[in-house]
């Protein structure tokens, strides 16, 4: 009876391998979106570590079997199914990274990196035959390892910046070296045959991530923009803000405030933003004000205001900047880090108004 069920399962999997993989991918992506919230939460990290361990165990079993180290028929039968959990683990990893990195990304600046993660997640479901290749397995594993190291290191150190990114890369290299040494003991012939391609592939992944980071394409993880908008008045009161705002149009449901600011009697324009960071992570956040020049067709920086940020609040650390003598036209405020990584932005039009605009009072 059991043998018959196993044979049926094997036949079904062989006949519907791609459809099964896509179903697992969609299911995992939905689950990750619903369950993964913050890179500093224990549950989120346990999920990622579990996926990494499953992938590593599967790589080890596959290559031990390929090296003839597994001789028991029952274990050899089990190893036939090993690519399945490995595929699920890699799909889960890149699904998790797509979710967590995209929450820190201003899509117009970081879309190349988010696209790479998404393609790795989707491509994973069509790459079973490649999982037979040792170099491909370790390259995908190292890509996941480096992605996680970049996420985790700021949480551990409570710091961000170039030095922390470099430390993240070094940590990932040390771990992959330990993994290769382990596999060298368990599948020596695989390592000897693939040593040069493995080194080249890992070096290319490492170099690519560094290029993407230093060109500000990798999002400033683990920071993420929770809210941003333009306000007519803003007053701090009892750890909250009393504000007056023009509500957005019904079709601008994705904005906190209207994208048209009707300015009356030379009033100030306040830009309020809320940026999430992990607990106790301290950083400097900047509001970069830019005006669109209709003649040159370019954005021209006008001012740069900074405020300190301390992480841990679910709604994000709140701060604001303002301008008073401001010309009508198209404006943009970028929320950036010290090294100009884009966290988010708000684009709005300033129009002079002869009458006081209708605003409503809100609590922030």
Structural overview:
Helix content is 49%, strand content 24%. With 364 residues, the chain is of the alpha+beta class. It has two domains: 2-214, no CATH class; 224-363, Immunoglobulin-like. A hairpin with a 2-residue loop joins strand 2 (233-237) and strand 3 (240-245). The model has no long low-confidence stretch (mean pLDDT 80).
Topology:
Blueprint: H1 2-15, H2 17-35, H3 42-66, H4 73-80, H5 83-102, H6 107-123, H7 134-157, H8 162-186, H9 188-214, E1 224-231, E2 233-237, E3 240-245, E4 260-264, E5 269-276, E6 282-293, E7 298-310, E8 317-323, E9 329-336, E10 342-353, E11 360-363
Parallel strand pairs: 4-10
Antiparallel strand pairs: 1-5, 2-3, 3-11, 5-8, 6-7, 6-9, 9-10
Helix pairs in contact: 2-5, 3-5, 3-7, 5-6, 5-7, 7-8, 7-9, 8-9
Radius of gyration: 25 Å
Mean pLDDT: 80
What is the domain total for the residues? 2
Distance between the termini: 64 Å
The main sheet orders its strands as 4-10-9-6-7
Structural class: alpha+beta
Give the percentage of residues in beta strands. 15-25%
Count of individual beta strands:
11
User: What overall geometry do the principal axes of the alpha carbons give?
Assistant: elongated
| Count of runs of 4 or more consecutive helical residues | 9
Which stretches are low in confidence, meaning pLDDT under 50 for 5 or more residues running? Answer: none
């Amino acid at each position: 009876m059991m043998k018959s069920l196993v044979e049926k399962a094997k036949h079904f999997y062989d006949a519907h391998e791609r459809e099964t993989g896509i179903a697992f991918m969609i299911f995992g992506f939905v689950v990750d979106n619903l369950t993964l919230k913050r890179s500093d939460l224990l549950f989120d990290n346990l999920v990622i570590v579990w996926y990494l361990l499953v992938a590593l165990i599967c790589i080890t079993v596959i290559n031990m079997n390929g090296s003839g180290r597994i001789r028991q028929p029952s274990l050899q039968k089990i190893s036939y199914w090993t690519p399945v959990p490995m595929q699920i683990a890699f799909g889960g990893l890149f699904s998790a990274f797509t979710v967590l990195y995209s929450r820190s990304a201003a899509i117009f600046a970081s879309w190349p990196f988010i696209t790479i993660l998404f393609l790795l997640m989707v491509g994973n479901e069509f790459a079973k035959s490649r999982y037979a290749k040792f170099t491909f397995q370790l390259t995908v594993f190292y890509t996941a390892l480096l992605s996680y190291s970049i996420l985790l290191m700021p949480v551990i150190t409570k710091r961000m910046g170039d030095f922390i990114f470099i430390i993240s890369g070094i940590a990932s290299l040390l771990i992959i070296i330990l993994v290769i040494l382990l596999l060298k003991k368990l599948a020596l012939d695989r390592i000897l045959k693939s040593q040069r391609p493995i080194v080249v592939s890992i070096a290319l992944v490492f170099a690519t991530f560094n290029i993407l980071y230093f060109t500000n394409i990798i999002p400033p993880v683990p920071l993420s923009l929770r809210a941003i908008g333009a306000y007519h008045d803003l007053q701090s009161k009892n750890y909250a803000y009393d504000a007056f705002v023009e509500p957005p149009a019904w079709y601008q449901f994705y904005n906190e405030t209207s994208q048209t600011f009707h300015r009356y009697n030379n009033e100030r324009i306040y830009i309020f933003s809320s940026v999430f960071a992990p607990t106790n992570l301290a950083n400097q956040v900047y509001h970069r004000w830019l005006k669109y020049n209709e003649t040159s067709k370019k954005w021209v920086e006008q001012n740069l205001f900074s405020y300190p940020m301390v992480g841990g609040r679910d709604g994000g650390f709140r701060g604001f900047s303002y301008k008073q003598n401001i010309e009508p036209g198209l404006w943009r405020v970028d929320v950036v880090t010290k090294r100009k990584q884009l966290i988010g932005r708000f684009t709005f039009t300033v129009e002079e108004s002869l009458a006081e605009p209708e605003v409503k009072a809100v609590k922030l």
